[in-house]
Amino acid sequence: MQHIDHDAIASPPFPAHGGRRFTAYLPMNQILQVGDCLVSANGLFFATLRDDGTLRVYRGIDVDDDQGLLWSSRKAGSPGQSGQYFALVQSDGNFCIYQGSDLAHNCGWHWGTQMTAQGQQFYAAMQDDGNFSIRAGTGPDDSRGAIWASSVTDHVQSIEEVLHIEYDFAHACVLRTSPANQYSEMVTNHGAQPSTHTLAGTIAITETSSWTNMSAAALGPDVEYRHGVPGIAGEDFILSDEAVDYVANCAVTRLTDWAFDTPYNVPPHASMRAAIALTYSTVSVPYVLVGQLRFESGARVVGTIRGNYLGTNAHSLTASFTPHDPSPNVGKRILRPLRPLSGMVAY
């Protein structure tokens, strides 16, 4: 990793702009105009073409959220040429900045990477580590290797504060669902009148939660964040009101006891099997973490880290009552949903 040019960080603020925004990559022959931004997929870095003819990489989301200069092409234009520049990845793999407003008004070469590789497709990439590179291929899903790179990176080293985690339930999925029998008892009524009994007790529940960030950043030693976690109940995605400790790139296990207490009747001269069952479901839910991030350079920036939540939760606590007269009569089985999961809300 190259050292960051701290002299360049003290650059003047951005001019007024209304540029376009490209996410993660700039296709070959697509014009990057002054004020346009090429933003990394994680939203922590962006490259922009300045009106002095320099291409610059900053931390932050866009020019309104400049969190410090990371790299610059350095070659500024002559006075009087302000604003008249454009850049593109050429069909030979060379990334060039030209004077003028576009290809039809090209007033001459200004700066370039000067690395070429004939006979391929190419694109410019704003990587999640701050590296600006020119790569062979049509885009990130078809990357065939770098042919040039700024080689200046600033990885996120740690999460110093978690402000919020937003779960994307629109793209959540249930990976598996498994019923689990927990308890059963057989009661026989030898009398001539119905007898009333109570199915009561507690069962041990084990639930797990894990968060996998796209960044390998560790959680700061003094950072604590407790919030509800995703789950499933019946056919609904839920978010628990019960707070769970967030742990970066790790799993946590919760052990709880669920109580049940429900009456049932046994007919005269008959037997009844009463049973308790529940369902375990495993869900996968994308999320975005918003927090204060510390980079390798020491810079601290409020930004986002994307990741995926994987968790298993218990739900659908149910009591069943099956007559035995004398063999099990499943056709007369009664299913009774018990009290809902405490502290869960449907999404």
Features:
26 strands, disordered N terminus, disordered C terminus, single chain, 8-stranded mixed sheet, elongated, mainly beta, 5-stranded mixed sheet, 1 helix, Agglutinin, subunit A, 347 residues, Proaerolysin, Chain A, domain 3, 2 domains
User: What is the third-level CATH name, the topology of the largest domain?
Assistant: Proaerolysin, Chain A, domain 3
Tell me the series of helices and strands, N- to C-terminal.
Answer: HEEEEEEEEEEEEEEEEEEEEEEEEEE
Low-confidence stretches: 1-17, 340-347
| Helical fraction | under 10%
C-alpha end-to-end distance: 44 Å
**Oligomeric category:** single chain
Q: Categorize the overall geometry.
A: elongated
Q: Give the structural class.
A: mainly beta
CATH structural class of the largest domain: Mainly Beta
Got a strand count? Answer: 26
Number of domains: 2
- What's the alpha carbon Rg, rounded to whole Å? 30 Å
Sheet with the most strands, sense and barrel status: 8 strands, mixed
Mean pLDDT: 88
What is the beta-strand fraction?
over 45%
CATH superfamily heading of the largest domain: Proaerolysin, chain A, domain 3
Q: What CATH architecture label of the largest domain applies?
A: Beta Complex
Helical run tally: 1
